[in-house]
């Protein structure tokens, strides 16, 4: 059975990251953008990371420019923006596509595991996937769902063995 741990992705600083590094952790995967109405969610994502990282939560941010051209910058600009404006310390990855033929394999798999209101596609920036310690998708959250609203689900996932 395929899990999140079977994939790899390029970090925002250009290093290949084997996602098996996150085996045993609860992972929140989010497609992000710097010029979106939901961009302030970076703050909530960082707060979740701060609150629960010592218990095993990691947030993985995947910048994407497929929705309204709201992530036009290069990777170094994105990283600088996130750190400067929201104090982002959780891992960020190189800009990817989440829909269509060019969708990153991680997102093809995530969408196959949990469809949303629009079927298997990603509707907009800041769609979130909660992945358990076993690498399986637990739930999917709409872009409008603020990070603090899923803290109970994160706590439940962290408590599960």
Quick structural overview:
The protein is built from four helices and six strands.
Task: Write out key terms for the chains shown.
globular; alpha+beta; 4 helices; 18% strand; two-stranded antiparallel sheet
Q: What does the radius of gyration come to? A: 14 Å
State the helix count: 4
Question: Roughly what is the average pLDDT, rounded to an integer?
Answer: 94
Order of helices and strands: EEEHEHHEEH
In whole angstroms, the N-to-C terminal distance is 18 Å
Low-confidence stretches: none
Could you estimate the helical fraction of the residues in percent? 25-40%
Shape descriptor = globular
Instruction: Give the tally of β-strands.
Output: 6
Widest sheet: strand order?
A: 4-3-5-6
Q: What share of residues are in beta strands?
A: 15-25%
Structural class: alpha+beta
State the major sheet.
4 strands, mixed
